[in-house]
Amino acid sequence: METVLVSRAVEQHDLDSVPNRTRLEFTHAGTRLVLNLDLFNFGCDLREEERHYRHLSPPFCRLFHFAGAVSPGAEIIIGGAVHRLDTAGIYLLNAEHSFDVRYFAGSKLCYAHLRLADHTRSSVFHDAPGLLRIEQPVISAYLEHAWETGMPLAIQSAAAAAMSEFVAPHLERLRERSELFSRFAPVLAAIDRTPPARLRVSELADVMQMTPFALSKSFRRKIGMPLKEYLNTIYLDRARELLTCSGGTVEDVAVLLGHSDVHYFYHAFRRLTGLSPGEYRAERMNFGTKTDESPEIARI
Amino acid sequence: METVLVSRAVEQHDLDSVPNRTRLEFTHAGTRLVLNLDLFNFGCDLREEERHYRHLSPPFCRLFHFAGAVSPGAEIIIGGAVHRLDTAGIYLLNAEHSFDVRYFAGSKLCYAHLRLADHTRSSVFHDAPGLLRIEQPVISAYLEHAWETGMPLAIQSAAAAAMSEFVAPHLERLRERSELFSRFAPVLAAIDRTPPARLRVSELADVMQMTPFALSKSFRRKIGMPLKEYLNTIYLDRARELLTCSGGTVEDVAVLLGHSDVHYFYHAFRRLTGLSPGEYRAERMNFGTKTDESPEIARI
Asked: Is residue A285 pLDDT above 90, yes or no?
């Protein structure tokens, strides 16, 4: 029995092999909350010429801060509105919101591609607008310092600092969500140790010592969403992140998701998105403005 | 089998029920590192009168920062040397180093009691001096901001920010240690899910599919420390933290450690320290200067 546990632990490590993860556990109003901050990518760019990019329904959030007093920043069109991004603000560009961005010449951008999820794997900003802004000079200064060091550990701490400001207005909602999920703790634990393609309602029902029917009914009534749909969301979030953020082939991604055969991945992904994994990835790499000077943007 | 997993997960949660934990996972020079930052206690005190305290072999580290430009700070005697703590510095008072501290009247102190350990559960500062100092105005400003908010999430992020500076010179040593332990990954995973009083060499040998003798020999040769001694250290670190940081009774601590009977706790703790759990705790509460005005210091 011990050996099975170990083997699962290894899978879990493979599954969650994001380069940088910060897990924050704390108590809010008497309820224990867990936040996972995954940094897929980060960097600091000086944009010497004006550049324009279009990002279609990105699967992760972007943290943006323009460094220095004279940085001209950027203009962004998101949700039909035009916003000027200045150096005083720290910005969160929310996942799933398509946007156009125009970087002005001379802008120095500190950025990170990230996901901030609670222990139910839902993005903290799931219901938030496409663009969030905070203004906190102390954190701006710390972001610039950390990005200058280039050290992953420092950048993770600085990203966590910015995220703790963005998340503050959402803490009460997160607490309520955690309470709703409290009776499904064994399900969440099983989800944590199972690759998403291998999640089965029947096995989750086993850990709850319930029938699949009873679990599905209880979950839908309490959470307001069918369990199967919840599992599909977890699967799809992870698949899209891996397709856009990992350098692996579609076959590699299928293995990381827990598929025994890449054809199952094609089938499942197309059923959920209408696209093949390769089409999905190609669509996100197809920029007219793709340049070698900005490979980290052009790549996604 | 699934049910056993869930039951262990619950134990793990009880075992690690520290109020605030930040887990940082990142890659350093190609090696994946994990750091766990546990905050047992934190606060911000204005000391209106000069105060003197003696701390005997504290089981956790202290993060100290004196806020404001006019704060007179403190004087500390540690390892036979006298140091002045000023407002420009951020200080780490290392665990296990006894010290005397004199807070000058008018000092505003942001503090946290913490432990920073790698995935082998060893303190990052195990071999470091009793007093460490960094000077980084950007982080000082962020610490003061976070402590003013009083929000656990902000304070965790700020403590992680300070720790990422303190830990930078130790990263290469942590990487080497991680490499040394790499062949014992299943042992570390088993330790993570087992309350420390229930750790047995025979069960760890099972997860490695080795005999207890072969595991002990391999561990000692690779790590340079007997496995049994390593397990005792993990047990004792946790026992001492719980005795000094939790408000629970000695019986509560025994349960959290995984003892089936409090008498086993008395026996094991006395064998390892020469003191009973109650004597250990009482010794750390016995300050001549104990006052109600500084309960958080006087308590420990």
From this structure: no
Asked if B39 contacts B161 with a C-beta cutoff of 8 angstroms, the reply is: no
Which residue out of A8, A65, A139, A153 would a mutagenesis test of the B interface target, given it has the greatest number of B Cβ atoms within 10 Å?
A153
Below-50 pLDDT ranges, chain B: 1-16, 286-300
pLDDT in tens, A70-96: 778 999 999 999 999 999 999 999 999
* Phi, psi angles (nearest 5°) of residue A148: -65, -35
Specify the CATH number for the domain of residue B225: 1.10.10.60
Cβ <8 Å between B153 and A164: yes
Choose, out of A4, A42, A157, the residue to mutate when testing the contact with B (most B CBs < 10 Å).
A157
Cβ contacts of B141 on chain A, cutoff 8 Å:
138, 141-142
| B16 found inside a domain | no
Give the whole-angstrom CA distance, residue B238 versus residue B96. 14
* CB nearest B153 (choices: A1, A26, A141): A26
CATH number for the domain spanning A116: value is: 2.60.120.10
Measured between CB atoms, which of A23, A151, A193 is closest to B23?
A23
The total of structural domains in chain A comes to 1
- Residue B183 and residue B163 share a domain: no
Is residue B92 one of the residues assigned to a domain?
Answer: yes
* Greatest distance between any 2 Cα atoms in chain A: 62
Q: Which residues of A touch B215 (CB under 8 A)?
A: none
Q: What is the pLDDT of residues A242-262, one digit of tens each?
A: 888 877 899 999 999 999 999
Dist. CA B51–CA B48, nearest whole Å: 9
- The tokens for A175 are 């607490």
